[in-house]
Amino acid sequence: MSRVFNFSAGPAVLPEEVLKEAQAGMLDYDGTGMSVMEMSHRSKAFAGIIETAEADLRELMNIPSNYHVLFLQGGATQQFAAIPMNLMKNGVADYIVSGSWSKKAYKEAKLYGDARLIASSEDKNFSYVPDVDSLKFSDDADYVYICQNETIYGTKYPKLPSTGNIPLVSDVSSMFLSEPMNVSDYGIIYGGVQKNVGPAGVVIVIIRDDLIREDVNPQTPTIMRYITQSEAKSLSNTPPCWGIYICGLVFKWLKNMGGLDVMKQRNIDKAAILYDYLDSSKLFKGTADKDCRSLMNVPFITGSDELDALFVSEAKDHNIESIKGHRSVGGMRASIYNAMPKAGVEALVEFMESFEKAHA
Ligand SMILES: *Cc1c(COP(=O)(O)O)cnc(C)c1O
Fold first, then answer.
1. Banded model confidence at residue 293, pLDDT cuts 50, 70, 90
2. Cys bridge to 140: 72, 90, 221, 256, which one at CB 3.0-4.6 A?
3. Is 102:168 a contact under the CB 8 Å cutoff?
4. Residues contacting residue 274 through CB under 8 Å, at least 6 positions apart
5. All residues at 6 or more sequence positions from 75 whose CB lies less than 8 Å from its CB, including other chains
6. Across the strands, what pairs with 170?
7. Average per-residue pLDDT in the chain?
8. Ligand 1 neighbourhood includes 337 CB (under 6 angstroms)
9. Residue of minimum CA distance from atom 14 in ligand 1
10. Cα 38 to the chain's mean position, in Å?
11. CB 254 within 8 A of CB 193
């Protein structure tokens, strides 16, 4: 068996310890004589899994008791619709568009109400995050929406917008559990877990209890109403059991690593190896502005499509996988999530150095 350094943006690398533990319980989970994939979501064993997962997540993120944790399906993309359908009481929401994901969310919200584009960084191909201090929010906005870490363009908000009494809704898919967050600053924090937390198929929604309402858009499917899912404790229908189980193992792994403060420092150190090299390189260039660089997704280019393609193909000989950039930015992208070991980033930079020498 040999494992590669997997720089995929998602589904993405998971901790080896977690995969091994899942493997050990594959045929017989905890003396039940069956796999978690085979057990009823109403069983005692599964109740233990989802309750422990929620408790560990609450501990890791220090989630206050007036916030609900929902483990749902439909990916982050389904939340692009669920959020306006559930939250638009006045029918108005303010969107900051800093990349493809927030742009998609904004377009989706327009199907359900008056979604207003209050700032965008599209003028410079989303290489920066709009200045949040100069923003004017709509008086009647039901929420302000951001994507805090734009997976494709490699930017992260250096600072949150101060929205006052208007709830802030944040898509954190590609930075989930990469650093501590002050949950009380938000109305909703949500993310698909396949970037940094678990396998595809689960989206976690952390929502303040006053935003869980009965008087939602009447067209909202029952299953997409937050009230349905919070009352049923995410068991309104069959949840993504296996995915929730793996997320739970990742939460335990994070706790064993020392929690999110420790992860943040590790992520800063790991990203610095790559950014420091990019800043000194004459061949490679990071595409995101320095003051809003993501710790998780690092897009970079050589400036030549031929050299980019050659880099991607030669990378495979160095055990470096899925380093090709998203088509909208081109070049390369290294996603260096929690489970990417420091050795992986070092191997990447070593290869970049030798590639630069060869093509100087
Ligand atoms: C990947 C991604 C999504 C889409 O997630 P799905 O689970 O595929 O719907 C949304 N937002 C961000 C920031 C992402 O990185």
1. very high
2. 90
3. no
4. 298, 334, 336, 345, 348, 349
5. 192, 200, 203
6. 146, 189
7. 97
8. no
9. 173
10. 28
11. no
**Angle formed at CA 130 by CA 124 and CA 136, multiple of 5 degrees:** 135
- Structural contact between residues 113 and 93, judged by C-beta atoms closer than 8 angstroms: yes
195 is catalytic: yes
- Residues 197 and 69: their CA atoms lie apart, in Å, by 15
Distance 45 CA to ligand 1 centre (A): 30
Q: Ligand 1 centre and the CA of 282: distance in Å?
A: 33
Q: Give the model confidence (pLDDT) of 190-247 as tens digits.
A: 999 999 999 999 999 999 999 999 999 999 999 999 999 999 999 999 999 999 999 9
Judge if the beta carbon of residue 286 lies within 6 A of ligand 1: no
- Nearest-atom number in ligand 1 for the CA of 174 is 15
In the residue annotation, 171 being an active-site residue is answered as: yes
**pTM given for the model:** 0.98
Tell me the two tokens of residue 193: 């877990």
Q: Whose CA is nearest to atom 5 of ligand 1?
A: 76
Tokens of 38: 């085979």
Dist. CA 125 → ligand 1 center (Å) = 19
